[in-house]
Design a protein that fits this description.
single chain, globular, mainly alpha, about 400 residues, about 85% helix
Length: about 400
């Protein structure tokens, strides 16, 4: 416990960073419930489908550059401005490519709401990355202020819904415009760090690291987007809206845990603590089976019940299923964090296994979402997490055995 706490920032910085982040995540998690109560079922369903389909976009834009910056910038020696410039170019290019592709896809379908959802997701990813880059450089204040401002922006948007009668399109237009202002403020602050155009070697290093470090988060988010879209295509739009609502609330704890790992990442980068479990084993691995058993038992019980009744599962039923899966998701998240902050071998291992987990989610969704609706979607998410976790556990055991043999030799 002490070694884990030692990875986090100082007390005052930690309070400021986590306080603003928790405020934002609480508002972000409860917003769907407020909109569910404020809008008609048809209006909310359209909003939930548009937002659910782009869940993967913010991680796609932010996770690779953010985690790479938190890993590389604290150890930079003499080339920090080039490394900084490479990360800024990477997040800008990623956001631009995502927006162009999304505009082509959604624009061809004439879905203005989906275009707005895509735009706000990409901008949110940019804001998260810029704040994290500044933190990696030792400046925590801008991120604290910007994340607090995001919470205020969401509350203003909710006020527009309640007082001015805003619909989904007006709400997302406001949110996207607000994110542009926040991103511009962070970009202006970064000018003082004098980023430089990176050389080819630095650019290749940053791109390679960011690409591999983004795989796990993007695969997990893509799995979530996949089940939302699968529910809609299978005609379970009510179940899709309910799952989106409950997932936003249940994932609050997971998002907090994710943020704590981001706070620990710069110090983890300096110490390289994750290499120790090659010799001593990964203690978290022992929790994969019990937490997986809990998640599978809850999913199996709900699936048997769903197969015997035609009614869609309610919010409470989905909340219980997802709550039973949260311990498994937390264990896999922390194991993935340890692997990706080890060395190139461990990073490659967890990236490959995250893709295998996404494949498990896809196959399970194809089989179960049609007949079981939202319960089948949760089954698919559990299948992906359990697959990823079991594979990581096996890899950790194999590495421990190899390290022990080498030490004994």
């Amino acid at each position: 416990m002490r070694s884990a706490l030692a990875l986090l920032p100082s007390g005052r910085q930690l309070v400021g960073l986590t306080g603003s982040r928790v405020a934002f995540r609480v508002v972000y998690a409860l917003l769907p419930l407020a909109l569910f109560a404020a809008w008609s079922p048809g209006r909310y369903s359209s909003y939930a489908l548009a937002m659910g389909a782009v869940v993967f976009v913010a991680p796609l834009v932010s996770c690779g550059p953010e985690k790479s910056a938190l890993l590389l910038l604290p150890r930079a020696r003499g080339r920090s401005q080039e490394i900084l410039g490479a990360h800024l170019l990477l997040v800008a290019a990623t956001a631009a490519v995502v927006l162009v592709v999304g505009l082509i896809v959604f624009g061809a379908r004439g879905s203005g709401l989906s275009v707005l959802a895509l735009l706000q997701a990409a901008l949110l990813g940019v804001v998260q990355t810029l704040g994290a880059v500044l933190r990696a450089l030792g400046h925590t204040g801008p991120e604290t202020v910007s994340v607090g401002a995001l919470a205020v922006g969401l509350l203003v948007g909710l006020g527009g819904v309640r007082v001015l009668g805003w619909g989904p399109q007006a709400l997302l237009t406001w949110w996207a415009a607000y994110l542009v202002v926040v991103a511009a403020g962070l970009a202006w602050r970064l000018r003082a760090e004098k980023p430089r155009r990176p050389g080819a070697a630095v650019a290749r290093r940053v791109l390679g690291r960011a690409a591999r470090m983004s795989v796990g988060d993007v695969a997990a988010a893509a799995g979530l987007s996949l089940v939302y879209v699968a529910l809609s295509l299978a005609g379970h739009r009510e179940g899709q809206a309910r799952l989106y609502t409950v997932m936003a609330v249940v994932s609050l704890g997971l998002n907090t845990l994710v943020y704590l790992t981001r706070l620990a990442q710069p110090e983890m980068s300096r110490r390289r603590l994750s290499s120790g479990w090659r010799r001593d084993g990964m203690p978290l691995g022992r929790y994969v089976l019990p937490t997986g058993a809990l998640a599978v038992a809850a999913a199996a019980a709900a699936s048997v019940h769903a197969a015997s009744t035609p009614a869609e599962v309610g919010l409470a039923g989905l909340a219980v299923m997802l709550a039973a899966a949260v311990p498994l998701m937390s264990v896999v998240l922390l194991m993935h964090f340890a692997f990706e902050n080890g060395d190139d071998q461990t990073l490659g291992v967890t990236a490959r296994y995250a893709v295998v987990g996404f494949a498990a989610t896809t196959l399970t969704a194809v089989v179960l979402v049609g007949p079981l609706g939202a319960i089948g979607a949760v089954d698919a998410l559990v299948a992906g997490e359990l697959t990823h976790g079991l594979l990581l556990w096996g890899a950790a055991r194999a590495m421990r055995s190899t390290a022990a043999e080498a030490h004994g030799g």
